[in-house]
Amino acid sequence: MDSNDKHLEILSAHYSETFFLLKSAVEKRDRLLLYILGVVFLLLVYMSAPSAVSDWLNMFINSQTGTDTGTTNLIEASFIGVILLLGLLSFSHTYFQTVLHIERQYAYVYQLEEQLCTYFDGKAFIREGIHYRKYKRNFSKWTKAIFWYLVPLLYVIFIAFWLVFLFTESQAPWGYKVVDSLITASMVMSLALYLLALAKKK
After folding, report:
1. Which domain holds residue 19?
2. CB within 8 A of 148, min separation 6: which ones?
3. pLDDT for residue 148
4. What is the rounded CA–CA span in Å between residue 138 and residue 140?
5. Fewest CB within 10 A of the end CB: N or C in the chain?
6. Per-residue pLDDT for 81 more than 70?
7. What Cα–Cα distance (Å) separates residue 125 from each residue in 16, 82, 106?
8. Other C-beta atoms within 10 Å of 143: how many?
9. In the predicted model, is pLDDT for residue 40 greater than 90?
């Protein structure tokens, strides 16, 4: 095996591994989006009736443990809100990281394809780069718009609704409101850094 064949073998194996990792990252991104939607749904339910969510959860715990605490709630409604908000922060921050990682990996895959396709007169190893751009469909553009624009927009709208609820309707003690505010500020910071990274990529 000469040096060119060895070089091709190494590049081809590395390309396959990189593409497999990229595919795994895309699957992770899609799962995270579902988790985010689920937590947002739970937060909307919580915003509509915080005490009802707390009562239901405490009744469930009491039924599973066989205890009867009377009118005393083991878990306060405000605590549930904090936990849900922390879950949303965790999922959304990881989601933003994953999307940016995918974009970086695609750029790297394009570089690998440019090197590999020279061995085949530009007729192979062009799937993600040349071939995709040549036959790009409107649905692909729409998919990109969902992850780049629609999700952040809906995220901003939800944060706005949450802040209105937190400072005008919520009956939570101020200590919980301070914690909720700090978590919300972290969510806004993650979103801002995400959008900034996307803007630089353009």
Report:
1. 3-201
2. 198
3. 84
4. 5
5. C
6. yes
7. 10, 48, 14
8. 11
9. yes
